[in-house]
Every structure is written in C-alpha cells, then in structure tokens.
Amino acid sequence: MPAPQKQAVVVRGGWDGHAPVAATEMFIPFLSEHGYDVVVSDDLDVYTDPALMARTDLILQCWTMGSLTDDQVKGLRTAVEDGTGLAGWHGGVVDSFRQSSDYLHLMGAQFAAHPRGIHEYTVDLVPDPGAHRDLVEGLPATITVEDEQYWVLSDPHNEVLATTTVPARDGDPWSAPLTFPAIWTRAWGRGRIFVCTPGHHLPTLERPAIRTVIERGLLWASR
What confidence tier does 41 reach under pLDDT thresholds 50, 70, 90? Predict the structure, then answer.
C-alpha cells in the first residue's frame, strides 16, 4: 500500500526585494519530487486554518517584514508546537513580523543589520554539528557567498550548524570581529525549525552548497 502523501504549505509574500515567488519556486519541484502535496498561499490567514495546519508536515515561509495578527501567530505557533516543521532562509524567516514578540520567540533569532550590504563573505561550518551531521555532510567547511551578511540577535536554544564573522573596520562602532549564527536548527515543542541566513537573492540560493543545505533542512524540519 503506498505511503500517504505528505503535505507542505509554502507561505510567501511581504517585501518584493527578496523575490518570494521566484525563490520559493526553486524549491517546490524538490518538495514534489519527495512526495509532498504542495499548497501555496500568499495570505497569512493560512495560519488560522486549524484543519490545514493539523495535516501540514512542513511550512516553507518566505515573507519579509509584514505583520501577523494575534490569531495568525497563534495558529503558526500551535502548528509548530504540535509537530509541523517550519523552514526558510534570510529575511523570509528572520526579518519577518518584527513587531510580534511571540513570532520572535518561536524563531529564536531576529535580523538586526547587514553591514556593507551585498558583499563577498564566508559561512563556516561548526567543527562538530553533533546530531545534525547529515545536514552538512559533504559540504565544504567554508562556503563563500556574495550576499547580505546577517547580523542576528539569537538565543542559546538554537543548535548552530554554521557561523559567519563580521569584521571590524576603521570607523565601525564595534571594535573587534563578531561571529553570528548563519545556519541553525531549533526544536520547538514537537516541531522542528530550520534557518539559513544567506539567501538575499537567487544567485545565492543557486549555489550548490546553499541549495543543498536548504533542501536537507526542509526534509529535516518536516514532521
């Protein structure tokens, strides 16, 4: 008897600068190939549909800035706590819904700045990814991207798989290089969360190492 089809919901919208439609379209065929029935929504009220959320194995969110109502954030948090996975990249997950403390609590991190804008920098895998070794196995220890380098405020519940270091230059108000999480996972209730901060534009998402870790993260986060 064939296994029941899995359910993924792609939630996309917000600021157009992160190309939410084009970016998520890159990953929808991958999900379909891995047995997911994919529903696409450009309306955050999808989070208030308890029947859909209850049968959803994975939410792929790409929604920069914007705002959530109390009912929307409650529906999202309830879904994740009950086992629905949540995954995404860059501003689509960590520069979303800035005014919602409940959303920030769920994600465990928030974009604060991207000094120097788009430039070349490195993402460095942590020496021991522990239980999440499969997510980064075979990837280069140092991944070079040309992207916005996210300075994030994060909490210690995140399990960091890769970091990035922002240098201190003459005139910067910080006096030494600072290292921030770049790729991490997070357990939340019965659910799993995956975040990759590189991904401002399509060329970054097309880089093999970045695309591979995001694809693995989608499958890992899924119920």
Answer: very high
